[in-house]
Amino acid sequence: MKVTWRERVGWPSAGQVLAVASAVPALALTGWLLAGVPLLLIGWFGPVQMILLGVGLAFLLGRYGLRRMPETVEATARQTAALLGVAAASGIFNGLLHGEQFIVRRDPATYAQYAVWLAVDGTLPIPADVAAFGGPDPALRFDSVGFYGVGPDGAVLGDDAVQGPGTGILPQFMPGTAIIHAFGHWMGGVPGLMLMPPILGALAVLTFGGTVARLAGARWAVVAAAVLAVSLPVIYTSRAAFSETCSMILLFGAVSLLLDARHRLRAGLLGVGFLPAASAPLPEDDRRRWPARRDDAAGEGEERAGAGLMRALAAARAVQAGDAAVVAALAGLLFGLALLIRVDVLRDVLPVLGYAGLLIALHRYRRRGGGRVPHASDGRLGWPLLGGLAAGAGIGFVAAYALARPYLADLSDSLRPLLGIAAVVVALTALGAAFAPRLGGLVARLVRRPPPGVARWWPALAAGLVVAGVAALAVRPWAQTVRRVATTPEDLLTADFIAKVQAANGLPVDSTRLYYEDSLYWVIWYVGVPVTVSATLAAAVLTHRLARGREFVWLLPLAVVMWTTATTLLRPGITPDHPFASRRLVPIVIPGLILLAVWGLRLLRDRVRRAGHDRLRQNALVTAGVLLLLAPGAVTSIGTAFTPVGRGEAAAVARLCGAMPRDGSVLIVERVTGDRFTQLVRGMCGLPAARVAVAPGADLAAPSDVARLIARVRAAGRTPVLLAAEDRQLVRYGTPALALSLRTRQDERSLVSPPDGTWTLAVDVWMALPAAS
Question: I need a labelling partner for 15 at 20 to 30 A (CA). Which of 31, 46, 133, 156 fits?
Answer without folding.
Answer: 31
